[in-house]
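A favour between colleagues. Tell me how you read the following sequence-structure pair.

===
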Amino acid sequence: AAADSEAKAAAEANAAAARAEVAVKVEAAAKVEATIPAADESAGEFVRVRRSSKPTESRPVEKRASKSLFGWFAQKSGANSPTGPSSPRASTTIEEDKETDFSEYKTPPPVMERRNSSSWKLFKRTSNASSSSSSSVVPKLSASDVLKFIDDLKQNNADLLELDLKDCQILTASHGIALAEALARNTALKSLNLCNTKINTQTAVKIGEALLTNTSLEILNLERNAIGPAGIKAIALGLAENKTLMQIKLANQALSAGTDAEQFLAKAMAKNTQITKFTLSIRDISSRGVIDRAVARNNEVLRKQRFSGQS
C-alpha cells in the first residue's frame, strides 16, 4: 500500500510539472504575438492571418496588393473573368467592352513589293528575245516549199547542207517517196530531220534503199513517226552498207518494231563502224546488247581517231 501511494504521488507531481511547462509556453507565445507589428496592406509585404468562424464558402475573397508579376497577372485574369451574376465589377467590364467603337479602325493597305526573281528574268529575257526577233521567225512551210526542197535535192544543190522538216504535217506519202529518191543521188546534204512528219512504212523502205547509195548524209532523224517492221528492216539493210551516217534516231514510233526487225538492226549495227548515236527502244535483250556494244565500239574508234589527229 505504501508503494502504491508513492507511485500515485510521483504521477501527480509529474502531471503538475507538465501543466506548469505548458502554461509557461502559452505565456511566452502570447508575449511574442504582442511584439509583431501591424500589417501594411499598401506595401504588399505582410499578410495578416485571420481566423473566422464563418464557413469558407460564405467568406469574401481577399485581394492582396502584390508587387510581383504573378500578382499582376492574377489581377488581370480576375478582372477579365466574370465572378457571378451579382458581381458589379464584371458587369461594368462587359458594358465597357460593348461601348468600345471600332468603326474608326481601318485595315492598312497591303504593301506591294516587286521581286526580281530569276524565273521572271528568264521569262523577261526570252520574251524580249522573241519580240526582238519576231521579224526573223520562219513561217510555216507550204507544199510549194517542200517541193522546192525536193527539187534542190534532185539538183544536188551544194548550198543545201541541212534540211529540217520537223513537225511538217503537210508532207504527204508522195512527197516522202520523192524526197527519198532524191536523197539516194544527193552528195551534199549532211543532216535530214523528218521528226513527226507522218512518215509511214512505205516511205521508210524508200529511205532505207537511199541509204545503200548515199555517201554524204551524217545525221538522220525519223523519230515520232509510224514506221512498221518492214520499214525498220529496210533501214537496217541500209545501215549495214552505209559508210557515212553517224547518227540515226528512230525512237517513239507509233508501231512496234518486233523481234525480227530488232534482230535485223542488231546484225546491221554489228557490221556498221560509223554510227555513234542510235535511239530506239529495243525490247529484245540480246539485240539490245549487240547494238549497245556496237555503238560503244564505234565511239571508242572515233575517240582514238580524234586523239591521233590532235597529236
